């Protein structure tokens, strides 16, 4: 079934939900410990993405949220019979004398969304959800610790495992970026031949042959913690150089980000989610990757590749092919390239996913950041979705990166504004 048809079917199911009032009761938690048992139980049966799992977000809170003073606001809605209807992993961040309500891990996550009961769309109509959301916001404002000045919920996918994201029933704007995924075949060779022409396959073989002149070429999955740490440390350094070449600030230089991803990559509690791998060419790690396997889907989260002579032969592109083959070999049904509209994602994917942002102002203190956010978003989307404008920004940003490398004392004035994953 085409994705548009799935969206239409999901919308029809949401619209068909009973308009009769649904008795939802809310529990609010301002810490992870009190919500852990219910959260872990619900995520095993809920429709969600891996970026809403307990282990992912508790690591974010430990390394990024807590040092920054973020207050978790974990809202759990239950039906009258006690079954969990949905869970919202939110937080309140303080900055410049204002308090913003946003998703836990919002900046670092590729997708932000609620966790939904499998039958949520059949039991809760769009109007009922809007009423419940308004009631939840009012309740938070009545509790001094949970009061906020404005709301900014970003990077929300339209569909969550076949259900319409209920936040799409609120007034929203499209995120500057989209996301892409591919439906996988049962056989890698069949999938590869469908996606790549005979001429492209010949070029792929020729590049791999040239690469083998530097040493034996192999695809390796990190098994132990030490190997995962070594591989991911190389990934971060390769990524830093790639981003600097494009005039983009080092994402791992942001407070807590390096520690968070290293924790995710090596912690035994998240190893069941994480796949760390590399392309090894002789003694050289030519490309590295951190992926997440969840719900029958491989999520392509972070990737890097070596610069220098090896870069001419596409080690990142080879690594991506190996990852697709790995996902098919594991029996996974989808390969999610996650947020970003890079050309290589369009070449392999068959589905584009719309992402939405929701913003609202609650107090006069939130007016300025709210206005800045809502005015910046359409400009950023126009640039990212308009090929000539995006090419111009990339060229200017690259020249800025060259200038900054020649003058290391200068600081990046805003390279992260249009950050995007580099192609493999």
Characterise the protein shown here.
It is built from 13 helices and 17 strands. α3 (54-65) packs antiparallel against α9, α8 packs antiparallel against α9 (257-266) and α12 crosses α13. Helix content is 41%, strand content 24%. It has 2 domains: 3-174 and 357-381, Gcn5-related N-acetyltransferase (GNAT) (Aminopeptidase), CATH 3.40.630; 181-352, Aminopeptidase (3-Layer(aba) Sandwich), CATH 3.40.630.30. By secondary structure, the protein is α+β, with helices and mostly antiparallel strands.
Total domain count: 2
| Overall body shape | globular
What are the low-pLDDT stretches, counting only 5+ consecutive residues below 50? Answer: 11-15, 409-424
Largest sheet: 8 strands, mixed
Percent of residues in β-strands = 15-25%
Into which percent range does the helicity of residues fall?
40-55%
Give the integer mean of the pLDDT values.
Answer: 90
Count of β-strands:
17
Q: What's the end-to-end separation, in Å? A: 29 Å
CATH topology of the largest domain: Aminopeptidase
CATH homologous superfamily label of the largest domain: Gcn5-related N-acetyltransferase (GNAT)
Oligomer: single chain
Please describe the topology of this protein.
Blueprint: H1 3-16, E1 25-29, H2 32-43, H3 54-65, E2 71-78, E3 84-95, E4 98-103, E5 115-116, H4 120-123, H5 126-142, E6 150-157, E7 159-160, E8 163-164, E9 173-174, E10 179-183, H6 188-195, H7 198-211, E11 217-221, H8 225-245, H9 257-266, E12 274-281, E13 284-294, E14 297-305, H10 315-329, E15 334-339, H11 343-348, E16 351-353, E17 355-361, H12 367-385, H13 387-406
Parallel strand pairs: 4-6, 14-15
Antiparallel strand pairs: 1-2, 2-3, 3-4, 3-5, 6-17, 7-8, 9-17, 10-15, 10-16, 11-12, 12-13, 13-14
Helix pairs in contact: 3-9, 8-9, 12-13
